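Question thread 4412

I'm putting together a teaching handout and wanted feedback from people who do this every day. The idea is simple: show students a protein as raw sequence, then show them the structure tokens that encode its fold, then repeat with a second protein so they can compare. Below is the first pair exactly as I plan to print it.
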Amino acid sequence: MALLTSSIGSFPKPKALQEARRRFADGEIDVSALRRLEDEATRSVLEFQDELGINLLVDGEMDRADPITTFAERLAGVEMNGWVRVYGDRYVRRPKITGPLSRTASTTVDRWRFARDTARGAVKAVLPGPYSLMDGSFDEHYDSRREVCLAFAEIVRDEAVELAAAGASEIQLDEPAAGARPAELPLMREALERVMQPLRGRTRVWLYLGYADFESTGAELAQLPANGLLVAGAHAAYDRLAAFARAIPEDRFVGIGVIDVLDPRIETEDEIRERLATVRRLVPRDRLWAVPDGGMRALRPDTARAKLAAMAAATK
């Protein structure tokens, strides 16, 4: 029996969409022209996942330059700061909080509805988590990181509740900053509890923890509130996940990365099968999902598709 499969969120943007985003920023095309190209790219990503037989689809985040930046820039109380280097030669504009945070309108529901109505399979809605939104922003308004984090938690909660009301039965919260400051794990838990509380019994919530330090904080990360946990694995030795795996509650699903999105090399099916054999020793098969290590936005489009195709084939 094949393992269940999903992706983490982002896919590479095609060149036509990258050019359209530049032209939109320069005032050469209007928002409707940009949206048409975003829709075409989203439709292509969904069709590709359908063809591979991926069980839980994502829309590829074709409308997002960066998950945190694009979400935060649509909020009241936020200005966009200058460019900040994230890794390699990738730069993003970091949000600057200048007043009380609040939603002006939903930022994700319409895009999720489009993906749901386009795809043949179930589509997972993806939101940035409150802790990573806080950690990825400059604050010039609140008195503490806790205040910022909990303000973001209210916004993410309301967005998630609106998604659930629209029919989203699968929602992913991205917390790539998880464990960056171990002393703040209780704050992350508090913020996530606020998001989770109105969603329990309504939707399955996945928590993406990325490349966190699972060796020293794995047990605490495993206990964070969610229905499913998603972690990177292919980029580092799987034995670093041992403490994390032992602490995972028995009612929790777990997706462990088996393709390395930081490596442009395309893995063979045999390599991925070896990784799958390793992760099956960490998590019972009936709760295990095969996923990439993270979003694939930094890869070439052909590389990302080849890697995901190899994963889908290996799981069968």
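The second pair follows. I'd like the answer to focus on this one:
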Amino acid sequence: MTQHVITPKRKPVKLGKVIAMIFKMAFLLLVCAYLVFPALTLISNSFKNRAELNRTNPRLIPEEPIIESYQEIAKDKDFKQGLFNSLKLAMMSMLLVTIVAIPSAYVIARVRSKAAGALQVWILVSQMVPGIILVVPLYNILKTIGLTNSHIGLLLVYLVGGQAVSIWTMVGFISSVPREIEEAGFIDGCSLPAMFWRILVPTILPGIATTMIMAFLSVWNEFFFALCLIKDPNLRTLPIKLRTYIGVSGQARVSVLSASSVIASIPGLLIFLFFQKYYVQGATAGSIK
């Protein structure tokens, strides 16, 4: 006796859904091209000679790639010094801002009082003040304590300036953690410091990674305060050095500036790739443990 296998009928795909999917994919490709094209243009210009850069019909792929711009940067001691200064300030600021922001955000998120709410609003309002207004007061304060034209003084400015965004970000992540997880830790005999570092910190690891990335990039790309507060050429940061590739009349050495910008973008990309893995790991690690 033969058995007939009944195969389920496939539902026909509607034409409207196919068209909508095509439009979505086309829109995503357009957005990706819009985001990627400037980076490709920057890399392309770093390998072009002056004749190709001055062409009326520029091409994305250089006809005769050159590496003289990268060789010139490799020999530039000021560029290396600026790269080292920016990397030192960005790493130190990233660590200090995060260390201060986590307990501050925990107090604001967990303490139920009007003062905590007012402080949170004040943190948000402080971001509406333009940075140019703060230059003169900050300079006078640093001059009074003898920290003008120094990395320590600039680091203090970055530490204070980065707290608002970092605390605001961490408050959101800490508030999303159920209080029952902390209470379970206390029931198991954890002290407040032990609960904080063994339970809460692993749970909010994605928020910590986000805060560290933002703190690093904000200092790495910072130009204004470094220009106003640092006068010693040996203490200047990388953005200040990149500015020297643009002449007084506004004519830039496009190939050298592009090559230096490509190198300057590598540390930020590496920091993002390094902390990216903690997004998934931290989402469940603390609560499971």
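Top answer:
Good format. For the second protein you could add a caption like this: The longest helix spans residues 254-288. The domain at 76-288 is CATH 1.10.3720.10 (MetI-like fold).
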